[in-house]
Amino acid sequence: MRRREICGLGSERKKAWQGYENITQKIEEPADQESDKKTEPKTEIVRKYYDEFWVDPFCEEVWEYNVAISKELIARGFDEIQFDYIRFPTDGRNLGDATYRWQDKGMDKESALMSFLAYARREIKAPISIDIYGANGWYRTGSRTGQDVELLARYVDVICPMFYPSHFEQTFLAQKPSEERPYRIFYYGSYRNILLARNAVLIRPWTQAFYLPVSYDKKYYDGDYVQRQIFGIRDSINQGYTYWNNSGRYEDIRPDIEMTAPYPWEIPEEFAGVSIPFFRGQ
Predict the structure, then answer these.
(1) Distance CA 163, CA 274 (A)
(2) Which of 129, 158, 205, 241 fits as disulfide partner to 82, beta carbons 3.0 to 4.6 Å?
(3) β 20-26/43-49 pair status
(4) Higher local confidence (pLDDT), 44 or 6
């Protein structure tokens, strides 16, 4: 029997699920012309929904819909299918309210993504890539998102971790010289990710070509910040990369670098310019 209902989450099964947060905002009141007395402003709690809509990852109709779109794209000439947001929701005060009506007994989040990708692998006649959180490329953990690299690597050709330095703790790998932090994150992260994947797929990280107003980026973000990420990938496993800027602004990127190009800054402790022997056939 085919499942024809919309595969939403929670009690609202006829529409996609949204997470929300509660924010405190000031209540605007008309000024009191007759009183100079200063009083505390009144506030109210307002529910703010995230701009993300989720359906049930266990639902086979969702799988069929995504694969049908993939087949259409291939027919139109695209040579690779990349699945972004291939994970479970992680944000929202109401996250505990998300229930999965199509979850069979014994299935967990990892098995939901594995089942979908196994189906996609059978149906899609083109290379398949997936985007994952940077943390899931750094450590083997899928309990929160379902993104267990070692398991998912069985069904795809490329894994694209988002090792954006702005998304890690701001002191992470920020030892002196602190400017080398972007290099370190991509150097070590790329290597760790391919080990988690048992060297079964290509690791093609997303690189950060955008600014976020976090403490490290406020001090260090510029074109060198972006270029250091590319050197980190080159000196690690060197299997490719993709730039990301959600506003389409790519003024911070530079021409690709050659394997023999010297590192233009102070040589970091990772011996920039010397590749990791296991993956370079040395």
Answers:
(1) 21
(2) 129
(3) antiparallel
(4) 44
